[in-house]
Amino acid sequence: MKVSGFTFVKNGMILGYPFLESIKSILPICDEFVVNVGQSEDDTLEMVRSIDDPKIQIIESIWNDKMRVAGYVYGQQKMIAQFSCTGDWAFYLEADEVVHENDLAQIKDSMFSYLHDDEVEALIFDYIHFYGNANTYMWSPAAYRRAPRVIKTSIRSYAPDGLFWLVLKKNKIGRYPRAAHTGATIYHYGWVRTEEQMNLKSSKVQQYWNKEHKEIQYSEIAPFILRDFEGKHPGVIQDWIPKEKGRFQANPKHRLTRREWKHRFMLKLEAWFGLQLSKKHFKLVK
Asked: What CA–CA distance (Å, rounded) separates 250 from 131?
C-alpha cells in the first residue's frame, strides 16, 4: 500500500497558516507528499523547500484571479496536487489542519482495512474547530463535525471548491463519496490566527467566492456555540500556538443574527433527539 499526502498553499506566512506543521503532522505515514505552492507575496515556497525530507514534491502554480465563482480556484489548486499523487490513497489536509501523532497508526490501519473494500471510497475524520485561541472550539451545526480527508486514487473524484469531493460515475452528476470513519480527529486552527491575519486572509480570498470582505471581530459570536478545549494539542503544533492564556470571551451583548437563531434551534433539536445536523459531504457506509 502506498499513501500520498497533498495540499495547496499560497501566502502561507503572511496569512498565518500553520502549513509546515500541517504537512509534518502526517508525513510519517506518507510515502510521498505533494505541495502545490501558489505564487506568493512572502517566502512560503522557501519554507516548504526547507522541509528536509525526500518525500516532499513541490509544484509551483499561478492562481486564476479572474475565476471568482464559488471557490472554484480552490478546487483547481487542490486537484492540481491530487492529480500528481501516485499512491493508493490520497490524504488531503488544508493548510490550517493538523493531525495528532496519537492517531497516525489508527489512520493507517483504516487504510489497510478498506484498501480492497470496493464499497469504501473515502475515509472521514471528526473535527475540532478552534476559535479565537487554542483553548476554545466551536460546536455548531454551522461547522461540519465530520469530513472526508482521505480518498482512493482509483476512483474518479474532483473538488468543486476545495472543501469536499464529488465522485463521477459514467460522466453523470457527481455524488458524495461512500466513506468509512477512521475514529481519528482533524484539529482545525484556521480561526486561531490573529484578527489582523484573519482580516487580511478574508480580504484576499473572498474574491474567489465573488464576495466582499467584511471585518471580522472574534468577540462577535454567539456564546452558546463555544466550548472549552480540555484535550491535548498535537505535538507538532505546540510551538506555533499563541502563548496567550485564558478562555476566549465572546461579547455578552452580541445580538444573534437570523442564522445564529436558526443554529440555536438546531442545537436544541440535536440535544433532544440525538441528531447531527451539520453538513455532511459523504455517505457513511462503514
From this structure: 10
Cell numbers at 53, concatenated: 525530507
Dist CA 226 CA 263 (whole Å) = 13
H/E segment holding residue 196 = helix 195-205
Where does residue 247 fall: left (phi above 0), alpha (psi -120 to 50 degrees), or beta otherwise?
beta
Cβ 116 vs Cβ 86: under 8 Å: no
Instruction: Residue 153: name the closest of 109, 105, 95, 92 by CA.
Output: 92
One digit per residue, pLDDT tens: the chain, 286 residues? Answer: 999 999 999 999 999 999 999 999 999 999 999 999 999 999 999 999 999 999 999 999 999 888 778 888 999 999 999 999 999 999 999 999 999 999 999 999 999 999 999 999 999 999 999 998 999 999 988 889 999 999 999 999 999 887 799 999 877 789 999 999 999 999 999 999 888 888 888 888 888 877 788 888 888 888 888 999 999 999 999 999 987 655 567 888 888 888 888 888 888 888 898 888 788 898 999 8
How far is Cα 154 from Cα 158, in angstroms, rounded to an integer?
A: 12
Count Cβ atoms within 10 A of the Cβ of residue 15 and give its class: 0-12 exposed, 13-18 middle, 19 or more buried.
buried
Asked if 142 and 222 count as a contact pair (C-beta separation under 8 A), the reply is no
Residue with cell 465573488: 210
Contact 85, 20 (CB under 8 A): no
| DSSP-assigned states of every residue in 11-50 | STTTTT--HHHHHHHHGGG-SEEEEEEE--SSSHHHHHHT
Name the nearest CA neighbour of 20 among 40, 37, 1.
37
The whole-angstrom separation of Cα 160 and Cα 174 is 10
CA distances from 111 to 55, 169, 283 (A): 19, 23, 17
